[in-house]
User: What shape does this take?
Amino acid sequence: MIKISAVYKIIRPVNAAITFLTIIVAAVICSPGSFPIVKIILAAISGALSAAAGNVVNDIFDYEIDKINRPDRPLPSGKISLNQAVALYSFLIFITLLISSFINPTAVIINFAALLLLFFYSFKFKKIVLFGNFTVAMLTGLAFIYGGVAAGSVKNAVIPSLFALLINFIREIVKDMEDVEGDSKIGIISFPNKFGFQNSKKIIFTFSAVLLASTFFPFIYGIYNLIYFLIILLLVDPILIFTVISLFKDDTKKNLNKISLILKLNMVFGLTAIYFGR
Assistant: This one.
């Protein structure tokens, strides 16, 4: 019999809750006017269950490593067997796809794509330098597409999805820089670990420049209004520039943690600009 406390630990409900809220926010931002609350709630629940499934399969693939590095995790500690974890993973996949089928066929396809990304992230992608970071960022962007599908407007989801993808990719590299010491001890080969901080800063600078330039296009092409442009010009872009300058001046763990938090906050500001600029 699986202990509830062990299930709670292996599915990481905090991460699942963040996915739930992200999809709700995405649906609100992407809503064309009407607000199909039932479909949006179903999307948020199914997205959270997909995240939970991703956490379970991650622990399954990390079983041997966790025996050494994290013996207190549910699988290596014996609180859940491998067979039970696989059964739980299969159950979560079935339930999340079933729930998404009540939204529309497109939602099922997107949810299935997210489940595949989560599986291959745990199986292979997270071990490939930068590719794992990009997969995590892509999943964040996909959450906005999923929310847009539930709200009834994929078109409105494209720009917030790309914004979320880019800023989260930048943040992923910053987090890897912050965790480089711990990653080295447990054998994780991240980009900063393999290529150093200076090359990591170049990657962050390049993608920050791309993000900075891309924030102007929605206003130039009349997709979003003056409110969007003002929030971007006065808040989002200056904060992004500040984080890059701060990174080049100070790459201590303390400052990297601060930059990571600022980037997370800046994502909120960017999404706010998109919402009020529609």
In short: The chain is about 80% helix and 0% strand. The chain has two domains: 1-129+142-152, 154-278. The CA atoms of residues 26 and 144 lie 5 Å apart.
